[in-house]
Write a structure and sequence with these properties.
Layout lengths: L14 E11 L3 H17 L9 H16 L1 E8 L6 E3 L1 H7 L11 H11 L3 E5 L6 E11 L11 H10 L2 E10 L4 E4 L2 H8 L9
Antiparallel strand pairs: 1-2, 2-3, 3-7, 4-5, 5-6, 6-7
Helix pairs in contact: 1-2
């Protein structure tokens, strides 16, 4: 991409912003060690039926919490300060838009790229890179109806809960298949699509 990217909505130049997503795991050696060690210590220290707090649970939590932070996904994405729109480039698409940990849902990045290739609906916006018309698609999603309330719950447990308590909806977005980028007119749409608990069911 060129040095200065214009917002597809016509707001002006967009800025690169670094974001840390605590709900998406990424490999970090130290963070992964803390994360796993904390989980194991907590699991081994919990005594069923005991009214007392085991010191191992506290130590495990002190390891687990920084582990979650260090092993969370960090991406640098284009953001518009005026309309809150977001552009995901190729690397961020692959990092953020994955399938669920259990392999029961579609890989979101692959699904969206296939949908862009087969769609014939033009977007009202031009691609900020090649300046050709982007393609408009609607992505069918199922996901949690609530925000995750406890960040100490392991992701795989959260995924299992979300697969059994979901609602259906769609998210509209625009993309350029040649430049491999996606445009979300609101940052909230990208946040919802990127969440591990938001899935595209396999058919």
């Amino acid at each position: 991409m060129s040095a200065e990217i214009q917002c597809p909505a016509g707001c002006g130049p967009m800025d690169y912003k670094t974001n840390r997503n605590l709900k998406i795991r990424a490999f970090d050696p130290l963070g992964t060690v803390f994360y796993l060690a904390g989980l194991i210590l907590i699991a081994n220290s919990i005594e069923v039926g005991s009214g007392e707090t085991n010191p191992g649970v506290i130590i495990g939590a002190l390891l687990f919490i920084p582990g979650v932070y260090l092993s969370s996904l960090v991406t640098t994405d284009l953001s518009c300060n005026t309309c809150t729109g977001v552009i995901l480039e190729s690397k961020s698409i692959d990092q953020k838009l994955k399938g669920d940990l259990l392999g029961l849902s579609e890989n979101k990045a692959e699904y969206i790229r296939t949908a862009l290739s087969s769609s014939t609906e033009d977007s009202e916006h031009d691609c900020p890179d090649c300046e050709k018309k982007m393609i408009h698609i609607s992505v069918p999603l199922e996901g949690e109806v609530r925000h995750r309330s406890n960040h100490l719950v392991p992701d795989i447990v959260d995924d299992i809960q979300n697969l059994t308590a979901t609602v259906s909806r769609t998210i509209d977005l625009d993309g350029c298949k040649e430049c491999d980028l996606l445009w979300f007119d609101k940052a909230k749409k990208e946040e919802v699509l990127s969440k591990d608990g938001t899935i595209i069911r396999k058919t």
